[in-house]
Structure formats: C-alpha cells, structure tokens
Amino acid sequence: MYTISHAARLTGVPAATLRVWERRYGLVSPVRTDGGYRLYDEHALQVVRAMSSLVAAGWAPRQAADHLLSEDGGGIPTGDVPDRPTPDADGDGDGTARVGDGDGAARLGSPRASDDDLEALARGAAAMDPGAVSDAMDEAFARGAFEDVVDSWLMPSLQVVGTWWRDGRVDVAGEHVVSATVHRHLGAAMEASDGQADGPLVAIGLARGSHHELGVLAFSVVLRRRGVRVVHLGTDLPAQHWVDVVRRRSPGAVVVGVPMRSDVIAVRETADALHAAYPGCPVYVGGGAQDEVGHGTLALGHTLRAAADRLELDLVADGTTRTAT
C-alpha cells in the first residue's frame, strides 16, 4: 500500500490531481487509515497511470474516467492508448467547458482559459478563502499537463489577482492567501516529481532583493518532471552565493528569474559575477523582465513549455553555440 505522496511519485500524477480524480470522477477508492490518510494499492496505481495516459492522448478527464470504469473499457488499457472519442457539445461531459477543442486537447493549453476561470484565484483572494483557492488549483491541474495549466491558467490568474489588488478589490492579506496556497501546491508538485529526475543539473532561483518566487518554482517543477535535476535556491540570493553554488555543485546551467523590472540590476550583477568566475556556465533568464537584462544572459521566453524545451535542447547539445542577449 502507498500513501498519496508515494503514489504521486510512482505515477507522475500530482497528489492534488489524484484527489480531484477520486472526488470528481470516482476513479479510485483508496483505503483510509484510522487517521484519515489515503492508501493506494497496485491496482489503483495502474488505473491512475492509465487515466494519465488517456488524458495525455487528448481524452477529456470525464470521458477517460468513464472509459476506465466501464465494462467496455476493460479497466486498464494494456496496449496502445485508444482513440479519443468525439467530445460532447458541452466540453468534457461534466459541465466544465474545455479550451482548445480545435486541437482536441483535454487541457487549458490554447491560447488562454475563459475569463471566469482566470478570476477564480482572485475571488478566493477577495474572500480571503484558502479553501476556494486550493479547490481552484485542484480543478485546473486535474484538467491538463502541468506546464500547459501554468502557462495558460496559473500565471494569467495571478496577473488578475494583481489587477484586482491595484483596483482595491483585493487587499494585501488576500494576496498573501493566494501566494501561500499556490506555493504549497507547487511545493507538493515538486515533491511528487523528486524521484523522476536523473538528468543534467540546473540551479534555479532569484537574485538579491527579488521575492516573487512562484514563476521560478513552477519552472523547477516542469524541469524535474522532464528528468532534469534541479537545485531550487529560492528567493533573495546575492551574487556571491550564486557563484558558491556553481563552485560546489557544477550545474550545467543557471536560471535566474526576473519577474519585475526592479530585479534587472541585481540579475545583471549575478550574471556578471557568474561569467567572471565560471565563463563556461551559461546563465539563462526568465520572467516578465528577462529581455531587459542582457549582460551575456540567455532569455528563455515567456512560456514554461518553450523555456523548458530550449533549456533541454541546450543541455543535451554538445558544442552548441548559444547566442547571448
């Protein structure tokens, strides 16, 4: 028997998604301990892996669950993943409209979620209701690939929270409720992906004085899920400490987040210090102000999927010439 965190590591499905699939679709029925903890057996893990494969192949979660639970579905596909059924007119069959039906994706990946979806976190912030924020996170990440949901739903939703704050509809306490809840969910996803990483090593974090961590934390999760080993350094790390990390761990690359224009000067200091001490270690930048940094850094772009694609290609391409900004 396996705890939910162990099951998440073994299946590659985040614990939050496992809970949604159980509650919303009745996909599995884990045993409960006297303390209320979920325990999954081998059959449950097989069903979860099958569900994950169907969703990745373009099935709507409701249709995938119905197929696996039906007699015709046979429970668990043992060969090729079955063709995706034609979606119903209302979305995924459970009242949740899907975005991006043009490519048959059962995810929120193109090009953006509905305005109502994007306001879910802001409503939770306005109500100072961490449960509502957590439910919105669970629902969103149960509907698609992690990086797609972050790109098309989470980051735009956080921008809406910022807009509501500027308009006076959300106060600082509400912002903190969202930040803490999102951070907890991303941390759980990071923990769940820990056993999957056995590839090249990358150091990721924020420079001196920078504290907006959610973007770099989400990127760390994406890389770990792709097999990249990540040293996540968190916030507010002075330039010399970045140099110390490279000296001690010898990463194949460094990624510094630049979420705001006010972070640019500190990121330049970090890049200059790293280039001086370790000229062979590439320094990548990501975030809203990445294009303003220059100083020999490599801009990753403004979506997690594209950023991870580029970094992976560079890490595995021996002798590739990189063009710095």
UniProtKB/TrEMBL annotation:
CDD domains reported in the protein's UniProt record: HTH_MlrA-CarA
GO molecular function: cobalamin binding; DNA binding; DNA-binding transcription factor activity; metal ion binding
Highest taxon listed in the record's lineage: Bacteria
PROSITE patterns, alphabetized: B12_BINDING, HTH_MERR_2
The HTH merR-type domain, residue ranges: 1-59
Alphabetically ordered keywords of this record: DNA-binding, Transcription, Transcription regulation
Gene3D superfamilies: 1.10.1660.10, Cobalamin-binding domain (3.40.50.280), Methionine synthase domain (1.10.1240.10)
InterPro entries: Cbl-bd_cap, Cobalamin-bd, Cobalamin-bd_sf, DNA-bd_dom_put_sf, MerR-type_HTH_dom, MerR_fam, Meth_synthase_dom
Segments of this protein annotated with the region Disordered: 68-114
Domain B12-binding: from-to ranges: 199-325
Protein name in UniProt: MerR family transcriptional regulator
Organism of origin: Pedococcus sp. KACC 23699
